[in-house]
Structures are given as structure tokens and as C-alpha cells.
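Reminder: ligand-aware prediction takes two inputs, not one.
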Amino acid sequence: MRIVLLGPPGAGKGTQAQRLTHWLRVPHLSTGDMLREAIRHETEVGRQAEPHMKSGRLVPDALVQQLVVDRIAQDDCVGGCLLDGFPRTAPQAKMLDEHLAERGMALDVVIKIDVDDNVLLSRLAGRGRLDDDAAVIAQRLQQYEQLTRPLADYYRSRGILREIDGLGTPDEVFNRIMAKIEAAKPAANSRV
Ligand code: AMP
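Here is what comes back for the chain with adenosine monophosphate:
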């Protein structure tokens, strides 16, 4: 299955992504991880992405799209993948759909984890990560909200958006996600 996982910073997306990839046996494609790795390895993409990421802004579409297109083309993605952190904007979503359609593929389901902003702020403040100072957190939440609305609308209009209540234990949230994915699985003998 090809799945997109959406959720604001602090929604437990990373934990859920890990569980999902284990359960579905598909690779986890996190653009944030890919970009951080590109920065660590001092690649050209990393060099261009770094100032944007440092200041809490999105990396330009073209950069991140190329990363995703190259990654999806790899053998381990033939049976599906879990996209995490991509698409982030409606243009990225359209590009992804077109890219997949040209190859006879499509997304099966988009899972959006919803958590109230006040809960997110207190969770993120508690994490105390170096790059998570208050101003950056606030900017990331605001940016998520602004960008995700059109993205969610786009997938809702296509009938593949499933919204999940992100409050509760990781097990509870995972059970909700699994139920939505089970319901969205393509018929019969497809592997997952
Ligand atoms: P994440 O780990 O998903 O929170 O991503 C960390 C940072 O990487 C973001 O704040 C962006 O600067 C950049 N990034 C990750 N994914 C994307 C994307 N799809 N489009 C643009 N920038 C992205």
C-alpha cells in the first residue's frame, strides 16, 4: 500500500510511522530524515536545504520532490511505502499524484493525525530539543495548520483522507490508524 501520514509536530507521527512500517512491511520515507541525512553528508541538496530547515521554513518544493522521486524509484518501494513529511503542500501532493499516475500507481489512503494545539505545545515544550525553541515551535505549528488545510481538502475531495484522533496512548492511536487502513486495503489478494 502507498500511504501518506500527516500530523503536526508533536502528534506522535514518528512513533506511529515506525509501527506502521513494521506492520505493513513497507519502507518509511521521511523527507525530514532524508534532508537531515543530506545535511550530515554535506551533499548539494543538504547544503541548499540547511538554511531553510534551520529557520523553521519549508525547503523549496523542487529539492524535496527530487529526493522523493528518486527514493520511490528504488526497488524496496515497489510494494508500497509510507510517506511521512511529504507531501507538505498542495503543489507537492499534485506532483506526487501525477508522478505515481504516470507509473500506473496511486496513493491508497492518507492518514491525518489530529491533536489540539495546546496539547502539542505542552508536549513539544517538554521534549526540550535544541532546535525546538518556542518561536520555532509556534512557527512550525502555524505553518502546519496553514499548509495542511489545503492538502487535507485536496485528499478529502479525492475521497482518500482519513482523520484520526491523536489523543490517547500510542497503542490507542495505532489501533485507530490500523482500522482505517484495513478498511482502505485494496480488495482480496494484494499483499498489504
Ligand atoms: P520533519 O522532520 O518532517 O519535521 O521535517 C523537518 C524539516 O525538513 C521541515 O521543517 C522542513 O524544513 C523540511 N521538510 C521536510 N519535509 C518537507 C517537505 N515535504 N517540503 C518542504 N520541506 C520539508
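The first strand starts at residue 2 and ends at 6. Residues 9, 31-32, 35, 52-53, 57-59, 64, 85-88, 92 surround adenosine monophosphate (CB under 6 Å). We will return to this case in the review session.
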